[in-house]
């Protein structure tokens, strides 16, 4: 354990800090282009296929998940273009983007309970943000991407200070001082870092705003950022329920909770989210 790293203090400004860590290991230029494409209405299947295929690890990740039991396809899919044809544009991009964010997390924390819980939270937040955005008349896939990216600032903090990972990844619902601890240690929090980093990468402003505002005390007025904000809160509650009761159960066994009714999420919608997350988790290296 590198104690000198854990004891590091940060006197630099937020801008200097983000600039110094902008090249997040394992987060390739291909990954950033892929996320930017979510806001590009002109990109076609051929261009998306070419983009994904330039990254062998992402392509392999996609094909593992596409050929998993979750999709139950009658034949094996062997290429990115086939996956796009069979599953469609949005589902493939969603799957690959999840793989993009998964790599640095498990590289830093390895296959630990902390890493698995954090990753499930990101997947839940993305799925719930998509559901909420669609109900509010907004772009569901854009909200999904923003939900997946909302905690990217934590990955940067882990890269710089990996030892206190449990503290940095402590769920907000379990410890209200999490943001305060980040500010004490770094001089800023992960939401500020995430927003600044996504802006530096040139990602759409809606994603920047969602990352920057997801830890605010009140819901942002912007529909997309507001969907991520609410999804982040719900995801903590939903993760606990999935862990305790429902991950391997049938949809009919799911008790419709008040928060589910509040966002129009029925048993079938809940089951789809749980199954999708299970498929993404099963495809992890």
Task: Note down, in words, how this protein is organized.
The protein has 285 residues and is mainly α. The chain has one domain: Hypothetical protein af1432 (Orthogonal Bundle), CATH 1.10.3210. The protein has 17 helices and no strands. The protein has helices at 3-6, 14-20, 29-36, 45-53, 56-66, 80-87, 89-109, 113-135, 140-149, 152-160, 165-168, 178-186, 190-200, 205-213, 223-246, 258-262, 267-282. Helix 7 runs antiparallel to helix 8 and helix 7 (89-109) runs parallel beside helix 9. It is globular, with a radius of gyration of 18 Å.
Keywords:
17 helices; disordered N terminus; about 280 residues; Hypothetical protein af1432; about 0% strand; mainly alpha
Kindly report the oligomeric state of this protein.
single chain
Helix content: 55-70%
**What class would the helix/strand composition place it in?**
mainly alpha
Give the low-pLDDT segments: 1-10
Sheet having the most strands: none
| Number of beta-strand segments | 0
Termini separation: 25 Å
Fourth-level CATH superfamily:
Hypothetical protein af1432
The overall average pLDDT, rounded, is 80
Strand content: under 5%
CATH architectural group: Orthogonal Bundle
**What is the CATH topology assignment?**
Hypothetical protein af1432
Question: How large is the radius of gyration?
Answer: 18 Å
Contiguous helical run count: 17
Order of helices and strands: HHHHHHHHHHHHHHHHH
Number of domains: 1
């Amino acid at each position: 354990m590198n104690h000198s790293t854990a004891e590091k203090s940060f006197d630099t400004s937020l801008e200097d800090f983000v600039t110094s860590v902008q090249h997040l290991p394992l987060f390739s230029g291909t990954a950033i282009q892929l996320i930017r494409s979510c806001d590009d209405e002109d990109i076609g299947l051929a261009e998306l296929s070419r983009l994904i295929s330039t990254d062998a690890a992402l392509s392999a990740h996609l094909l593992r998940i596409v050929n998993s039991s979750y999709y139950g396809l009658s034949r094996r899919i062997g290429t990115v273009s086939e996956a796009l044809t069979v599953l469609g544009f949005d589902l493939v991009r969603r799957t690959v983007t999840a793989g993009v964010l998964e790599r640095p997390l498990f590289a830093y924390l390895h296959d630990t309970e902390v890493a698995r819980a954090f990753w499930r939270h990101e997947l839940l937040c993305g799925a719930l943000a998509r559901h909420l955005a669609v109900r509010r008349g907004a772009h569901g896939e854009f909200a999904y991407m923003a939900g997946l990216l909302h905690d990217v600032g934590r990955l940067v903090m882990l890269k710089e200070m990996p030892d206190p990972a449990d503290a940095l990844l402590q769920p907000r619902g379990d410890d209200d001082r999490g943001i305060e601890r980040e500010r004490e240690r770094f001089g800023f929090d992960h939401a500020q870092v995430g927003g600044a980093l996504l802006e530096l990468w040139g990602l759409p402003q809606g994603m920047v705003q969602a990352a920057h505002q997801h830890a605010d005390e009140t819901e942002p007025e912007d529909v997309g950022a507001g969907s991520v904000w609410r999804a982040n809160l719900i995801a903590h509650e939903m993760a606990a329920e999935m862990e305790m009761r429902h991950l391997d159960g049938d949809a009919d066994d799911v008790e419709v909770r008040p928060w589910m009714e509040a966002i129009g999420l029925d048993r079938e919608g809940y089951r789809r989210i749980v199954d999708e997350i299970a498929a993404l988790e099963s495809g992890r290296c």
